[in-house]
Amino acid sequence: MTTRYTQDHEYIRLEGNIGIVGISNYAQEQLGDIVFVELPAIGATFKKGDEAAVVESVKAASEIYAPASGKVVEINDALSDEPGLINSDPANGGWIFKIEVSDSGELDSLMDEAAYADHTA
Q1: What does UniProt give as GO cellular component (predicted)?
Q2: Domain total of the chain
Q3: Buried (b) or exposed (e) across 78-103, using 16+ Cβ within 10 A?
Q4: 6-21 confidence digits (pLDDT tens)
């Protein structure tokens, strides 16, 4: 299972044709304590780069962009009651939504972990 990253610090982890989307550990550290998450609707369709969700911290509100085109098939309801999961476990419990990816080739333009580490250094 490969994780890819966008310039805007979203990650997508592909399991078959389902992409698990969230924000990177680096991003949550920059935002500080996350207090609210506006989740997308199940069934919503996005093109790569569309605004899909919003994460609000004590410092700022940040748009979360779809790292690939597709349809939202699941959202992380736990974030409604516990948005801090993004701070404590951004890669696992703090995922934001799952998207059925319509063109996995779009992921080829995203960064792998090494390139993302360079990007955030």
Answers
A1: cytosol; glycine cleavage complex
A2: 1
A3: ebeeebbbbbeebbeebbbbbbbbee
A4: 999 999 999 999 999 9
